Model the fold of this input.
Amino acid sequence: MANKETNMELLYGEAHISKGFNEVKFREFIQDDLIFPTKGVKKYYMKQDILIQDETDENDVYFIENGIVAATLDGKIVVDFFTENDVIGLSNLTLGSSPDYVFTAISDEVEVTRYRKEDLIEKIMNTQEGYLYHYVHMKNMIDRLLARQELWRLPTEERVIIVLLELGKKYGKEAKDKDTLCFPKQISKGMIAQYTNFNPNTITTILQKLEEEDCIYAVRSSIFVNTEKLETKLRAFS
Done:
């Protein structure tokens, strides 16, 4: 397997592989009926519904169309978030493999296309492109894990600022004010605390400090993030 990965990198180049075989194009490849046709099924989940349960035989793969899904360790500690164009359930190509995390819908509704893992394995293992798509998917998952471990090594305030910016840009929405994002309501302070490996009181203290510095502000139950001011503070840590 390692030799095959090395050969692929030499043949295509790492940058070309990452760009040319991303999750969006992976989806197009799966939907291509010319080789090993596969059919997905639309599924809808409400908030708190579980898509994938840990310590169970999991034989389905989910392509997220809309909404936000949280991955939790033992169903308690949030370790990652997934949204449109992300793929979950494909970290292990073995049928009946037990997932490492519980995947739960945290938005009001999550729309997915569900595929039988057996069908995807056939397509992945029998085509060169399929192998590359899975390689990039696994590399992305590993990169996310390493980035989170690196995050935990950072000072308290820097860690929280990075999370506000990254999660705000990926899962939030642009606000009317310039350089401002509405942080996703679906991701609570408690989830931020788990994701950053802090206790909730620490998160509350840092958010209050950032609010006093006009880097964020709250309107009702929403948090608005001034990206320019947070990025300026982040540069000061360098």
User: Anything to note?
Assistant: The two ends are 39 Å apart (CA to CA).
